Amino acid sequence: QVQLVESGGALVQAGDSLKLSCTVSELTSHYDYAVGWFRQTPGKERDFVTAQAWNDRYYADSVAGRFTISRDNVKNTVYLQMNSLKPEDTAIYYCAATPLFSASDDYHRATRWTYWGQGTQVTVSS
């Protein structure tokens, strides 16, 4: 059973940086799985933030240039470095993992992902 556990959420001020971590366990092969981050606010759908499949990285337009995804396969950890945070980045951030998709557009769809963490709260004050 693949398990994902996020950490690093916090209350920060606009313009600050924050780094989230996600420990992934029980993956049979890191190279057969993509990892990603989504976020959700109350009453809204879970939105795509970023994903990494092999060396390909995908970003939502709203975070491109500010957020960076990375993974350390030795430590079984996925990171989300968030810079220049804005109040609209406030959300619960979820880490996710999935077998690789053939179509890159599928990484943007939360319903296509297989494994999820419990989420970590990020609050950005103005």
What is the strand and helix layout of this fold?
Blueprint: E1 3-7, E2 11-13, E3 18-25, E4 33-40, E5 47-53, E6 56-59, E7 67-72, E8 77-82, E9 91-99, E10 115-116, E11 120-125
Percent helix range = under 10%
Number of strands: 11
Distance between the termini: 40 Å
Number of continuous helical runs = 0
Summarize this entry quickly.
The protein is mainly β. It contains no helices and eleven strands.
Written overview of the protein:
This protein has 126 residues and is mainly beta. Strands 2, 4, 5, 6, 9, 10 and 11 form a 7-stranded mixed β-sheet that branches. A 4-stranded antiparallel β-sheet has the order 1-3-8-7, with no helix packed on it. It contains no helices and 11 strands. The termini are far apart.
